[in-house]
Specification:
The protein contains 8 helices and no strands. It has one domain: Glycerol uptake facilitator protein (Up-down Bundle), CATH 1.20.1080.10. With about 220 residues, the chain is mostly helical. Helix 2 packs parallel to helix 8. Helices cover about 75% and strands about 0% of the residues. It is globular, with a radius of gyration of 16 Å. The protein starts with a helix and ends with a helix.
Length: about 220
């Protein structure tokens, strides 16, 4: 039960501080600042809950671990449930904070989007391609850095910096998802366009994750042989 609770807490923290930075101070922080907020959230949580749950805090990460047989189907299901619930609670806290300020939470909660919801007007096809590629890179890095115990001491930093790295390019395009839980939560609160588009930010990251897991498994097997 502890590992599921850790996934719940970790995802809530990621969403609260990542999406919160975009919603509260996005104009001041800019792309780099928001990217670092997401990345540093991973770094912080990795060194707190990593030894308990592995600090997936992302259904795409859990899917890759399932494909590579690093977790059971039962754990995968319960991890994903905990992650989605944690994301919803994180956005709920953010919404409550914004309600207590002069900011209107309905102006945005760090939601992802394309077309008019994209800063550069990226269309749906572009959004799907972008999210598949960004998630592939992120998950591929996660698998690589967590497969070697010698890298365990720096895994959290590498993963956090990689998340920030993909956000730097992705934020102007789609707001960067690479995490279905992080995308669904704000869409549920905002409804409308955000909710109608959220399927892209659930499906595309899962495709990118599966591709990364299969690619890593194939190449790693070739190296071992």
């Amino acid at each position: 039960m502890k590992k599921y609770l850790c996934e719940f807490i970790g995802t809530a923290v990621l969403v609260l501080f990542g999406c919160g930075s975009a919603a509260i101070a996005g104009g001041t922080l800019g792309t780099l600042g928001i990217a670092l907020a997401f990345g540093l959230s991973i770094v912080a949580m990795a060194y707190v809950i990593g030894n308990i749950s592995g600090c997936h805090i992302n259904p795409a990460v859990s899917l890759a671990m399932l494909i590579n047989k690093k977790m059971s189907v039962k754990d995968f299901i319960l991890y994903v449930v905990a992650q989605f619930l944690g994301a919803i609670v994180g956005i709920g806290i953010l919404y409550a904070i914004l309600e207590c300020s002069k900011l209107n939470p309905m102006n945005g909660l760090g939601a992802n989007g394309y077309d008019e919801a994209s800063a550069v007007g990226l269309n749906m096809i572009g959004a799907i391609i972008t999210e598949i590629i960004l998630t592939f890179i992120f998950i591929y890095t996660v698998l690589g850095v967590t497969s070697d115990e010698k890298k365990s001491s720096v895994a959290g930093i590498v993963i956090g910096l990689t998340l920030a790295f993909v956000h730097i390019m992705g934020i102007p395009l789609t707001g960067t998802s690479v995490n279905p839980a992080r995308s669904l939560a704000p869409a549920l609160f905002l409804g409308g366009e955000a909710l109608s588009q959220v399927w892209v930010f659930i499906v595309a990251p899962l495709i990118g994750s599966a591709l990364a897991a299969v690619t890593y498994k194939f190449l790693n097997k070739e190296v071992k042989e």
